[in-house]
Design a protein that fits this description.
It contains 20 helices and no strands. It is an all-alpha fold and 391 residues long.
Length: 391
């Protein structure tokens, strides 16, 4: 499996980071606030990516909590060895290819890094292909083939003439025909659900009957779940006695589907808002708003007037950044590109990607669900952002 190699836009503060970690008290969680307020590393361009670097090196876990290795950074006598060991683990593909990778030139390291990225992309594409197949279809395929190859002599003799039946059962269950004969799955009896496996051990059943039984059961289950009148597993209550899932189940199902995309946009938009404020506040925190385009300032001023007129609503106070819309955040980045975003993003590809999915945001905000394919497009854009600037 290809491993993603750690990468930084700038390494000038890496040494300073470990020195400050050694001096500061160990935090409960290594957050962005701890990095800026406690360690004093406040640059969104060069310092914020240090958090995912620590995570990759194994000094903090996925939740940002310091690991046992973090304690070694607090010991000046052990700090250097701990960092060296972590680097060898993080860059294992490089050191596996060349034990003296730390002595390679910058050009050679870049070549090897590009090769690793290419392998990782191919591996991700393969994973994406496999994830498109449902669990039910894969379990059916494994179980049926396992029983077919492990049956009686008569069953084994029938294998040569069962291809037509193979296709027939797959068609009735909705199993893709292109998986036939090329399945990557292992053929073991344990792949059959446990209750069915016990039944097949005690009851004599022809292989094709068992396959059809499983296929039809799975098909029926999917059909029932998709019926508009079937009550969904999630609830949506408007009072202690009224659950909309039992009253209008179809609408609640659509709402649950749309909510996934909305939640993703909620996180992405607030992430971009924080990033904009961090970058524009880098040189002058008090006057960052002056760098925002005039048309955006005017629109926000109008919204502030509306906010004052709606004081009777329990919304709380919101600053100027909270009143900027998703398109306006992207417009600010484009307008202030030379101020700090160019150093951070290097090119405007991410801005173009983010604008492209803006239509999906509008669709969701107008109470319309989007397809799984488009939801995945949002996730991919977020993954691309988070690779450049850690959340």
């Amino acid at each position: 499996m290809a491993t993603e190699l750690p990468y930084l836009n700038s390494y000038k503060n890496v040494g300073k980071l470990f020195d400050k970690i050694g001096a500061a008290a160990k935090p409960e969680a290594f957050t962005h606030r701890f990095l800026t307020d406690t360690l004093g590393l406040k640059s969104a361009t060069t310092d914020r990516p240090l958090i995912p670097l620590l995570r990759t090196l194994g000094f903090i876990d996925s939740a940002g909590k310091p690991t046992a290795d973090y304690n070694l950074l607090k010991n000046p006598a052990k700090r250097g060895a701990a960092i060296a060991t972590a680097i060898r683990k993080a860059y294992k593909p490089l050191f596996a290819a060349n034990e003296n990778a730390h002595n390679l030139s910058g050009t050679e390291l870049q070549r090897r890094h590009r090769s690793s990225c290419r392998d990782r992309w191919q591996h991700d594409e393969q994973d994406r292909w496999h994830l498109q197949r449902s669990r039910e279809e894969r379990r059916f395929l494994r179980g049926w083939r396992s029983r077919r190859t492990g049956g009686d002599e008569e069953g084994r003799q029938r294998q040569g003439g069962e291809e037509g039946f193979d296709h027939e059962v797959r068609a009735s269950a909705g199993v893709p025909l292109q998986l036939s004969g090329a399945s990557p799955f292992e053929r073991h009896g344990r792949d059959i659900p446990e209750h069915l496996q016990c039944a097949t051990e005690s009851v004599s059943m022809r292989d094709e009957q068992l396959a059809l039984f499983i296929a039809l059961g799975q098909t029926a289950d999917r059909v029932l779940r998709d019926l508009p009148e079937t009550v969904p597993p999630m609830s949506l209550s408007i009072s202690s006695s009224i659950d909309l899932a039992t009253v209008i189940p179809e609408a609640v199902k659509h709402a649950a589907t749309a909510a996934e995309g909305y939640k993703l946009f909620y996180v992405l938009e607030n992430y971009l808002r924080e990033l904009v404020v961090d970058v524009l506040s880098k040189e002058d925190a008090e006057h960052w708003w002056d760098k925002v385009p005039k048309d955006v300032q005017d629109d926000v001023a109008k919204l502030e007037e509306t906010e004052e007129a709606k004081q009777w609503m329990a919304l709380g106070s919101r600053d100027k950044s909270a009143l900027m819309t998703y398109p306006q955040l992207l417009r600010v980045m484009d307008h202030c590109w030379k101020v700090g975003f160019e150093d951070l993003l290097r090119d405007k590809t991410l801005l173009h990607q983010s604008r492209a999915i803006g239509h999906l945001r509008n669709t969701l905000c107008h109470m319309t669900e989007i397809s799984d394919e488009e939801t995945e497009r949002i996730r991919q854009t977020m993954r691309d952002w988070f690779r450049v600037v850690a959340p």
